[in-house]
Amino acid sequence: MRNSRTKYAILGWLSREPMTGYDLKKKTEANLAFFWSESYGQIYPILHKMEKDGLVTMVEDREEGRPPKKIYSITDIGKESLLLWMKKKPDKDVFRSELLLKLFFSQCCGPEIIKKHIQERMDDSRAKLREYDEMMARMALNRNDDPAFSYWTMAVEFGINSELASIDWCKQTLNNLESFEKKE
Amino acid sequence: MRNSRTKYAILGWLSREPMTGYDLKKKTEANLAFFWSESYGQIYPILHKMEKDGLVTMVEDREEGRPPKKIYSITDIGKESLLLWMKKKPDKDVFRSELLLKLFFSQCCGPEIIKKHIQERMDDSRAKLREYDEMMARMALNRNDDPAFSYWTMAVEFGINSELASIDWCKQTLNNLESFEKKE
DNA sequence: GATCGCATGTAAGTGGTTACATGATTTA
DNA sequence: TAAATCATGTAACCACTTACATGCGATC
């Protein structure tokens, strides 16, 4: 837990508004899914520790006939810790691709198998692009006054560019594999 | 270890030529670094297990005055296992970006800090592009007859496209942040 | 009556890295 | 003679995921 970025993702969210562990997870899924993820198994224990360390405070919200919520807010110490992290040079992006691994070793079985995988990847990328469009539309509707929206847009733009680049690569590589096949 | 892809990365390499655990690590670093990595702490134990499972065989190579090598070769069972894996739909690419996480939460500290990070990222991407060029040149020299080279080129092409897209995004985002600043 | 969404949490397991130990040879 | 490279290996740790447990209310 020493170097966990989960802590800072939580502080980032709480710097906007107080919320529960459940909210944290749902918001991360809905907004950051393509470049970040968190699980309950991380969130809840870390939230407890953060409270103990004075980074956040918690109030219990008991409404009748509903499961009690624990609403967390960021403290001044938490804000300081967040700012310190923001200033640090970000770690390298993590990228790991089984598709490229399979492509690299495709000599062992010929181009047909990997062609199918790349075709499917192209379809997946197109589906993702449609998702981004929906996300953008949904967010733009009720948030164009929020300064956070601008930052969010730039992040999503990265995802869109990546998928566009991925689709181009798929087409190009499918062509390469085609002509490669004839040569053999 | 049940579903470890390390196993298949090893089988992939050994399907080309027999080699040692040390070679496996070095070759992965030199050729797959931008989309795959392995550590000795994974390679050696898994290699032992693979031998026990009959996926590979090992011969010891003792030359005088040198540390003894263990040279691994793929078996027919190993080849079968590799082929089965090749045919399976590849897992989703893993992507995780602290840079985008920081961008997303930049509301908490304003655009200056993230601008610096993005500027640095652009420099890093350019450096990576130069590395790819070197890799391509180095490989093209002595390998243009090897059919594996074509597959390798296509994989590297993905990396090049990604970095190109990343650089574009950096420029564009830097511009956005500039005008965003003036509005505030 | 079943399942979904809200809401919190834990235990076990995953795949993987890091740090370390050992020791010879080659290069700077 | 110090450092880098070759070469194998293990123990401890790491961040994180998955599966599970609980239970209420709303919806299908």
Give short descriptive properties of this protein.
homodimer, 184 residues, mainly alpha, Arc Repressor Mutant, subunit A, 2 domains, two-stranded antiparallel ribbon, 7 helices, DNA-binding
Kindly describe this structure.
The structure is a homodimer of 184-residue chains. Chain A is mostly helical and 184 residues long. Chain A has two domains: 2-87, Arc Repressor Mutant, subunit A; 98-183. Chain A has helices at residues 6-14, 21-32, 40-52, 76-87, 98-104, 111-143, 147-183; strands at 56-61, 69-74, 94-96. In chain A, strands 1-2 form a two-stranded antiparallel ribbon. The model of chain A has no long low-confidence stretch (mean pLDDT 93). At the A-B interface, helix 1, helix 4, strand 3, helix 5 and helix 6 of A face helix 1, helix 4, strand 3, helix 5 and helix 6 of B. Strand 3 of chain A pairs antiparallel with strand 3 of chain B. Chain B binds a DNA duplex (28 and 28 nucleotides) through helix 2 and helix 3.
Short description:
The structure is a homodimer of 184-residue chains. Chain A is mostly helical. Chain A has seven helices and three strands; from the N terminus they run H-H-H-E-E-H-E-H-H-H.
Low-confidence stretches of chain A: none
Number of domains of chain A: 2
Which strands sit side by side, in order, in the main sheet of chain A?
A: 1-2
Terminal CA distance of chain A? 52 Å
Shape of chain A: elongated
Number of helices of chain A: 7
How is this fold's topology laid out?
Two copies of one chain form a homodimer.
Chain A: H1 6-14, H2 21-32, H3 40-52, E1 56-61, E2 69-74, H4 76-87, E3 94-96, H5 98-104, H6 111-143, H7 147-183
Antiparallel strand pairs in A: 1-2
Chain B binds a DNA duplex (28 and 28 nucleotides) through helix 2 and helix 3.
